[in-house]
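Hi, here's the filled form for the chain we discussed.

Project: internal
Contact: R.S.
Residues: 332
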Amino acid sequence: RPASVRKVRPSTTAALAEPLMPARRAVSGSLRGISVSQAGQPEVAARRVSSLNDGEALLGFSSGLCSGRCFLYWLIFLSCLGGLLFGYDTGVISGASLLLKERFRLGAVELEAVVSSTILFAALGSLASGPINMRLGRRPTILLGSATFTLGALLMAASASFGTLVLGRVIVGVAVGLSSGTVPMFIAEVAPTAMRGKLVALNNVCIVSGQVLAGLVDGSFALVPAGWRYMLGLAAVPAVVQLVGMAFMPESPRWLLEQGRRGEARAAMLRSRERTPTCEAEVESEIAEMAAAITLQREAEAALRRATVPIRPVDEGGGGGGGGRGGGGATL
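And the returned structure, exactly as it came back:
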């Protein structure tokens, strides 16, 4: 057998697969429960949400505030707004830079710092959005990004020096990173299954629309005295609207399930559904499937952390001149 051939012992494969078996059984059981609920069996259909639990009352579902179709319209609006903010800020500097160069007497290096600082800190903000999302949740992360965006836009509009301008661009860059890494994920986790792909695609379309809008705003204020202040400061308007709009949105159901807050996750999902005779059973089925997927993910991560398989030589019992440790491959 060539020396490059490696063998994996069956016992090793079984050892890696064994920790995943409980999660697989949980997924199979959940899927059976889903099929039962869809078939309308009594034991699952009997799980009626006749009274609101503490999580639903906390989210304001009992008052009917922004639920059902109203919730979907508001989610579509926020989806457009998140992409619009991202596109506007990345595009508005192209027209404003001409006026900024004249106002602050910027050289080539200083102008590059103004333009690129947002992009650099947007990359850093997107990296930081992952841990923040896991710890705080999607909704607080978007609120933090909207508040940061508003602060940065107002600081840029009121800039009286080069340093203040760069600081505002840095703050806006962090906000862009936080929002761009969170808004699509939040939409995908909150929206009904039939609309998730459309809303995420709509968010991407609005990024380009924001860049077009930035070009129109630049052209409108190009001849206005101190027009760069309006160009940069107008970004605060959609940021404030997004900040207020997120106050009426629930947390991501998946994140709530990961925290063990099943009642609040059910309430959040019910807000995005129209109240039909089958919506409660459908929500219960989707929650069961989501919980099983979370369990499987955690079991897989734990199995990978425990799996430490050394590579060592294999004695093939041959290969002249090689002795007992000579020719042959290796075993994982």
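Let me know if anything looks off before we file it.
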